[in-house]
Amino acid sequence: MQSLPAIIVQLVHIAGPLKGEIQEFADLEITVGRLSNCQIRFPKDLAVISRKHATIIREGNRFRVVDESANGTFLNGKKVSEAYLKDGDVIMFAEDGPKVSFLTRVDENMTSSPPAKSSPPPPPPQKPLAPEPHASQPLPPRMPQPSSGVTPIPQTGGLPQSGSAPTPQKVKVPLVIQYGPTLQSFNELPVIIGKDAGCDFVLNHASIAARHAQIYFGHDQYWIKDLTGRQSISIHGAPINSEAALRPEDVLELGNKGPAFRFLGGGRLAEIAQPSTVPVAETDGMQKKTAAPREAGGKKVKKSGSMFSKFFSK
User: Cα separation of 93 and 259, whole Å?
Assistant: First the structure.
């Protein structure tokens, strides 16, 4: 019987008890619920989730979600009994229940066979998207910042010493970028971010240049490079001169009053509304941060919330 190309389903948990996890499946059927044999298994005390809540079924090169619950399954905010999925769709299991973002990628090294009538296997162990920096290779030290009356930046982001950055080269490592409802994954770096349509990740924002930033990998860690030549990228409010190594929990700002992201390690960049701790307002079941000033170059910066403003936050 003819085999099918292997399509890996990536489910990124953006709300609920598994928030922050990324699960990958090559199965032709993915079951969701509280039963022990479900691939996506929620806690037994999460009453809004049925024992078998939903199933994601592969049909050729397409995927369909089928609701099998008492409290419903929602696709992009709309209740469905069944519906076909596309990359970037948000599935919510029960009203105000756990949410996942649906993504797929083709694995050229594998093939899938038609489904066999057998019990689903237990969920695979979670693996990090990319190795963390090796403990024996210290990260580049930070360059001192000029005295300007601005609160010193935390020692989790900043500038590398001149000459310490590697040369960007093609490397097969993963990168996942979340911005608003967009969730895009890459299997090879470098990746160019900018407003130009020819960029790998197109970011249409008034503060973003045509070719704004480059994400690359070297010395066993991820790096960001400013392509504008105008110090248009900041880490924790401090502009970088050219490039800087990225460390988990680094807060990046692209341009003056531009988008802000948190680097979560393992090649994950998630949009954040505002890095500072500010009051949170509840709006339609989603968290939206109120405007909060933070000095960056002497100017107050305000960020608006987004649907995934707490994506991957710990």
Answer: 29
What is the phi/psi pair of residue 304, to 5°?
-95, 155
Contacting residues for 202 by C-beta, under 8 A, at least 6 apart: 194, 195, 196
* 84-119 per-position pLDDT tens digit: 999 889 999 999 999 999 988 877 665 555 544 445
pLDDT confidence bin for 264, thresholds 50/70/90: confident
Which class for 176: exposed (0-12), middle (13-18), buried (19 or more C-beta within 10 A)? buried
**Using CA atoms, how far apart are residues 10 and 12, in angstroms rounded to an integer?**
6
**CB contact at 8 A, 191 and 173:** no
| Whether the predicted pLDDT of 9 surpasses 50 | yes
Amino acid, single-letter form, for residue 212: H
Task: Using the predicted structure, report yes or no on whether residue 8 has a pLDDT greater than 80.
Answer: yes
- How far is Cα 217 from Cα 86, in angstroms, rounded to an integer? 29
Mean pLDDT of 229-236: 92
Tell me the CA distances in angstroms from 98 to 23, 54, 72, 78, one per residue in order.
14, 12, 12, 15
* Amino acid 53: pLDDT: 97
Question: Bridge-partner residues for 185, per DSSP?
Answer: 176
Q: Among residues 281, 82, 311, which one has the least CA distance to residue 181? A: 311
What tokens does 274 get? 């505002």
Torsions phi, psi for 95 (to 5 deg):
-65, 130
Counting every residue written for the chain, the total comes to 314
Are 34 and 41 spatial neighbours (Cβ–Cβ below 8 Å)?
Answer: yes
